[in-house]
């Protein structure tokens, strides 16, 4: 009979992503995750088989959460320029999914995660373009907004507050 999991995988995954965000992927080992979660290292080995599988599972779970958050943001954002801003704001909110944004693609050597990241980027750009009226000009503006937004997300923790998403949306949609 299988033992009941005291600490669910989702909690373990969240801790692994926090470790990656804080100290980089090299900080993740069975021992460090065991210390952080209170699970025994052999339990983690039994659950995941290898360190690489454990990290991949944690990042894949992060992508699943981000994709769900993206779907919710798409449903809530109106189909206009303010909706494009609201959509990106919702994805950049202080949620675990948003906090993971810059760390989910921690290792683009993994083709599965790299493809997932590219599909997500395309989905976000398409959602933005739809809110900017569609067409080639809107697609171009959406790609620029996505890049600017990602840059903002990357530099914000370092104190970069000069960029205002609202202003970029106005310039690109007007």
Automatic annotation (TrEMBL):
Sequence ranges assigned to domain HTH tetR-type in this UniProt record: 16-57
Domain of life assignment: Bacteria
Keyword DNA-binding found: yes
Keyword Zinc-finger applies: no
Pfam families in UniProt: TetR_N
InterPro entries to which the protein is assigned, alphabetical: Homeodomain-like_sf (IPR009057), HTH_TetR (IPR001647)
Keyword annotations of the record: DNA-binding
Name of protein: Transcriptional regulator
Native organism: Gemmobacter nanjingensis
């Amino acid at each position: 009979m299988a033992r009941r999991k005291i600490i669910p995988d989702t909690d373990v995954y969240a801790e692994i992503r926090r470790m990656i965000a804080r100290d980089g992927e090299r900080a993740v080992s069975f021992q460090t995750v065991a210390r952080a979660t209170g699970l025994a290292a052999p339990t983690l080995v039994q659950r995941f088989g290898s360190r690489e599988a454990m990290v991949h599972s944690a990042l894949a779970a992060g992508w699943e959460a981000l994709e769900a958050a993206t779907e919710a943001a798409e449903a809530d954002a109106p189909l206009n320029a303010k909706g494009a801003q609201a959509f990106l704001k919702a994805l950049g909110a202080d949620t675990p999914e948003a906090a993971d944004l810059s760390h989910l693609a921690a290792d683009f050597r993994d083709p599965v995660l790299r493809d997932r990241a590219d599909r997500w980027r395309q989905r976000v750009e398409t959602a933005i373009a739809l809110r900017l009226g569609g067409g080639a000009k809107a697609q171009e503006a959406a790609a620029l907004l996505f890049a600017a937004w990602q840059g903002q997300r990357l530099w914000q923790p370092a104190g970069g507050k000069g960029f205002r998403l609202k202003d970029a949306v106005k310039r690109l949609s007007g």
